[in-house]
Queue: 2 jobs
Job 1
Amino acid sequence: MNKKNIRRRKQFYANKMHKDIFTIIFIASVVPATIVAVCLYYLIFYITAEQIAIPEAIAYSLIPAAKKVIKIVMFAAPISVLIILMSARSITHKIIGPFDRIVRDLDECVKGKKQGHLTLRKGDRFQPLVDRINKLLDRLR
Amino acid sequence: MRKRKFIYVAILTSSILFICYAHALDLPKRFLFNKENALEEWQEKVFKNKVMYTVQSEEEALLAKSEEGCSGLFYRIGFSPKEFPMISWQWQVVEFPEKAAGETGPFDEKTGWIERDDYAARVYVIFPSLNFSKTRCIEYIWDENLPEGTVMTSPYFKNIKLIVAESGRGNMEKWVLEEYNIYEDYIKVFGEAPRRNVGAIALMTDTDNTLSTAEALYKNIKVGYKNE
């Protein structure tokens, strides 16, 4: 594997498809979590407050609990979102990057500019596909 | 086609108006305590120990006896405090909670006020919010020591304001009539007009902090009427 093959991308999004997939992953993780959080707030805190009813009792028992929950959420939510974003970026780069590369290399092969095999970066997906394309290219040559 | 559209809009508008103003149909609401089952419409909410609330139908009054207890009677009622700002009731204190010498002095928010947050009688006006931490409440209290008209913030929560409606032992064991303008009191204690409707009223006699006993009577409660 040469240096070119292990080069990492500097752009956050490789292309529009990458941006779309990344956005879908982000929305699919954050939106349901937010909906669940709102529902849980309603289910646990709002209904409990309705049941307790006496303002002093709410202030004494429920508000300290809610404050603790908010602290945990404020601390954990950004970390979780960051982890999701980093994982999504890493996974999508390994899928979208080789897809672009295969298309580009095949274009060059068609134009006769590229003679060798198609290569992928370390850890990229689609290696089995590239192996078969290389076998096909060998047979065609 | 146009006529049908108009009918739909009219039905929708009248439904919305009905929903918005349906609560006003029951107003003013009176609580007379003249029947044995008068407490059926109230919910009992227990904070610490139970307070004995019993209807005295001959006297048309509600007797509250607390022995180291803290529970209140809660009634959900929705109305605009701007449109129907008045509340009135009669109350009588038979026994005050025993507050230690150090707990009867001048009001000081910093030192152990929760230990003296017991009152022979309180009437709550609650302004609930979807975000429960923004619920606001005005409590009219009868305190043995604090001067009438004193406004305080509850030691439990900044959104609970206490107004001393009656003070001292001078009127002890006598029926005292109180009438307040909720809208004006809200502005006085919170510094702004209420943005939410009244959602409930409550009554409480409590002695859980002073670990003592107290006894009070309430009667002829009337809420949600205009100042005439």
Job 2
Amino acid sequence: MPLGQRAGDKSESRYCGVEVLDFPAGEELPAVLSHSLSSSFDFLLAPLVDPDYRPTPGSVLPVAASDLVLGPAQWSSHIVGKISEWIDLDAEDEQLRLDSEITLKQEIAWASHLSLQACVLPPPKRSSCANYARVVNHILQGLTNLQLWLRIPLEKSEPMDEDHDGAKDNSDMSDTVDSWEWWNSFRLLCEHSSQLCVALDVLSTLPSMNSLGRWFGEPVRAAILQTNAFLTNARGYPCLSKRHQKLLTGFFNHSVQVIISGRSNHNVSQGGVLSGDENHTEDTAVRHALSPYLDYIAYIYQRMDPLPEQERFEINYRDFLQSPLQPLMDNLEAQTYETFEKDTVKYTQYQRAIAKALVDRVSDDDVSTTKTVLMVVGAGRGPLVRASLQAAEETGRKLKVYAVEKNPNAVITLHSLIKLEGWESLVTIISSDMRCWEAPEKADILVSELLGSFGDNELSPECLDGAQRFLKPDGISIPSSYTSFIEPITASKLHNDIKAHKDIAHFETAYVVKLHRIARLAPTQSVFTFDHPNPSPNASNQRYTKLKFEIPQETGSCLVHGFAGYFDAVLYKDVHLGIEPNTATPNMFSWFPIFFPLRKPIYVPSKTPIEVHFWRCCGATKVWYEWAVTAPSPSPIHNSNGRSYWVGL
Amino acid sequence: MVLGLYAFADIAADGAPHLNSAAGEELVRVERAAAVALGSRAPEPPGTLFITTRRVIWVSEVEKGKAYAVDFLAVSLHAVSRDPEAYSSPCIYTQIETEDGSDEESDESDSEVNVETELSKVTEMRIIPSDPCQLDGLFEAFSHCAELNPDPNAESDEENGWAHRDEGDEDMTGGSDAECEFSDVNPIGQTDEHDITHAVVELQINDQRFEDAEEAEHETHGNGH
């Protein structure tokens, strides 16, 4: 049964499995399953075929149990198949290699027949695994629902920095082990198949935190927790080190299922048994040898905080690719406005910024005689108008508001709002595109919320430069500046979702996505910055930036699937608003990050910097980004001439 | 629906239960000389097991008028158990969803009234046929009837309020069709369609069993390099 009840968590990581080490011969499997289920485990990782079997002509596969003994629903829900561990497709011995290929295919075919959801493949036995990958790739192309989980031990030896001698460096290189490299070689050879995933064997020692972080961007489906990884506490019970606990919590938060494996190393007595009651003792089921480990795993799960309400709301959008909005070219729908207007944190920040600007603009002495002219450009259905009027009331300043909106449908709503609130004498509605309108007077303050996930990607610079005509020479723009940021990420799932479209255009499009199963490989760096008022309003908003990212050495090698993009805006002075991870405004949900994919993921060896170029290009009718990696190996320039993705003016 | 095990009294003169024919209840399988064990208690003497399209009814042959029933909607799990280590006799093992979800079993005296109160708290029941060869057939009947009673609490696809653009260039559409296909499958480990939202591994979070160990200092140093 589930490890616990955590509000908002519906993921599969609530279900814990146990590995069957000995082949369950003679129809023992149903009994083993029943025993495990009654001991609160949820599924088995079980051998499908007798490991002593070797293929001979006409022989029948000696399976653990036929589909007459367990029904398809039981197989599908409660068994993850374990492919025979003796299989070695890169063996020197030709007979072993051939036997391995035949048997692997037979076992996978049997698993498909049973409707299993997943099978665990034995780990690569050496760093070279080309033939193994070839056979698996062949199998993958014929699968529909079955997933293959390649078993990978979670290990990485640390290179010794003291050895500067060239000869020793070569020797040291051959001794360096990083199991991530095995996984990377294998999945590259298998063309990044979406049905090839990872089952990590968690051992007693763990690599560095940065190194572990890589796996959260990979399709890890299970963590096989060895009993040897557990420590013993003062009471003789199994427990985990703090680093293992942290890793486990990370797995739970990323839908990774735990499978407990190994022999019991802790003999904890069952204190609750009434030894005096002979009748009772006889009927009590024998407790599973690994139950103390399961109890501990459940303890770690139940100790986790509930998912925050906002996370629960957004959980269905995790790693879901969306096209960015085009508010300048398209008219937004009521539902879109409705959703964004619920972001109270955003409008609180705007209200704070407007209040500060009002106080700076009009001294306390002049409050009764001075009226501030404020223009909301891109008023939508009015939330910024409301924030402005509330700021005026809060600061005691008098305000004259112009609400400029080009969407005629939103203007209808605006009229209703102003009548409803009795703001007729304070607010004038202008149904016009701010780029074409001629204002009757200059404004002291210009307020807008034209920001996209990358800051300028909804063409805020083009709009606000056009609106600068309305502003007094010493006037204030809110926002006063905004900056975009990027960082390289591993994101297997996003890559596979884009690949499913089978074209270049989708790999040259930026997506808005709530990033979840990703590895952030290096700290963010800023890309483009825009200031308002623009000191040179007639200058072009074209931009070009070259960036270099250094990945920490202890991370090891990694694969870059693309770049996560964020923004941070200075609304006014110290009032910020943004989603850049280091400075993100808490509890805001108007923006998800943006993702710039690479057509081909780029392998980055350890200690090698990444060099990336970003361009912001402007045409007569559209604005677009181009991006390319030039080191460690060059990629094509993505979205050349805006051929795949652009934002309409 | 009724959660938990309950006493059943509507038995005809020939010992067969009256079915709710008006509600479409039909008999699927009868098993003579089957014992039941409730929770960790000793098995009751053999009776007759009736599996209908809606519930499992067991009628005692020794004690007139004694019978138990449980709706299939409350049976969250059923499995064949043959391992003597798990249970001494081959049997059908079932888990029953109860009203309060508590695993607590009282040690109260064995009076008639208390027995009846206790029924609703039973979370495990084993059906022990006198002939173990009948287990597979019983399991099949259980599976068939469980499918006839899907969980009404199964999660519905509520549409989230988040904005999705339908207009615009179709090529720009994000998201993946594969996503929808995959999410239709139950997660590995989930029992049939019954998502038991309140039956979980029971622990006392402040249980001293889960204290951290003293971690060796050399390990810390090793990781630091």
